[in-house]
Design a protein that fits this description.
The chain is α+β, with helices and mostly antiparallel strands. It is built from 8 helices and 6 strands; from the N terminus they run H-H-H-H-H-H-H-E-E-H-E-E-E-E.
Length: about 170
């Protein structure tokens, strides 16, 4: 059950900044070293991708990594977690520069001039797919204003109580 791994590894192998980051790492890091080998294979091979050694590099978690039912996205997030733990904070910071998404959730009431902004960091954007014809439409739906009114008012706290409000999602950095 490794086809999801192979497709995820093929995707990661064409993300040039990530590829460079992986090859800058010390090959004594077991998982990273095997990932370097997989990427070399992908660049030079004409046959099927051999990832047995890569899977084995997860040690006691090898069985879980190769037989747990997951998709490519889940595998990439799990791989990132393992690499972050194995290599450290500098790697995690550099990886987040490549794949990170900074967003701001804003909720505000114009009636009482109250606004709350919450900044978040993510490594992915969960896109809704039902009822959309394109990625652009799906992205647009994420940034549409959401109204809080009627029975669904925003509770601003003790000073102003429940108010009509608008909630927005804005991407700061992709």
């Amino acid at each position: 059950v490794t086809c999801y791994m192979a497709s995820a590894l093929q995707f990661l192998s064409v993300v040039t900044p990530f590829l460079s980051l992986i090859f800058q790492q010390d090959p004594s890091n077991k998982i990273c070293n095997e990932l370097q080998n997989v990427f070399r294979q992908l660049r030079n091979a004409f046959g099927p991708l051999q990832i047995r050694n890569f899977i084995s590099s997860f040690g006691e978690h090898s069985f879980e990594m190769s037989y747990r039912e997951q998709d490519s996205h889940e595998f990439i997030l799990t791989l990132f977690d393992y690499l972050d733990k194995e290599i450290g904070k500098d790697f995690e910071k550099a990886r987040n520069e490549i794949f990170g998404i900074e967003l701001v959730r804003i909720i505000e009431s114009k009636a009482v001039n109250v606004k709350k902004e919450t900044e978040e960091f993510q490594n992915d954007i969960p896109l809704p797919i039902a009822h959309f014809n394109s990625i652009q439409q799906s992205l647009d739906s994420l940034t549409e204003d959401e109204l809080f009114e009627g029975d669904n008012k925003w509770d601003t706290g003790t000073e102003h109580g429940k108010q009509d409000a608008v909630r927005r999602l804005r991407f700061k950095k992709l």
